[in-house]
Amino acid sequence: MDVTIRKVDERAYRLFKARAAERGLNLGEALSIALQEWSKHELPQGPRTELLAHLPVFDWGTRSESLSEDIDRILYGGE
């Protein structure tokens, strides 16, 4: 099967192509193997926001109580 793939990360593509060549595979053969392996894994559905709850709490020290609001003001404007 012939396919065209757009918007591929150039560095990842070059590394993938080089690794395929090291193993004596053409790009199509290597990609077929990678697709088969990747397809075996269960992928999470939807946004992965549940991971935010697992982040450790970080103490930014004194005078950082309004840090989130300050960042919002810088990014989105307002008072």
Task: Please describe what this structure looks like.
With 79 residues, the protein is mostly helical. The protein has a domain at 10-39. The protein is built from three helices and no strands. The longest helix is centred in the first third of the chain and has 13 residues, at 10-22. It starts with 9 loop residues before the first helix and ends with a helix.
SSE layout and pairing:
Elements: H1 10-22, H2 27-39, H3 67-76
Largest sheet: none
Radius of gyration: 22 Å
Mean pLDDT rating: 85
Determine the number of helices (DSSP H or I, runs of at least 4 residues).
Answer: 3
Features:
79 residues; mainly alpha; 3 helices; elongated
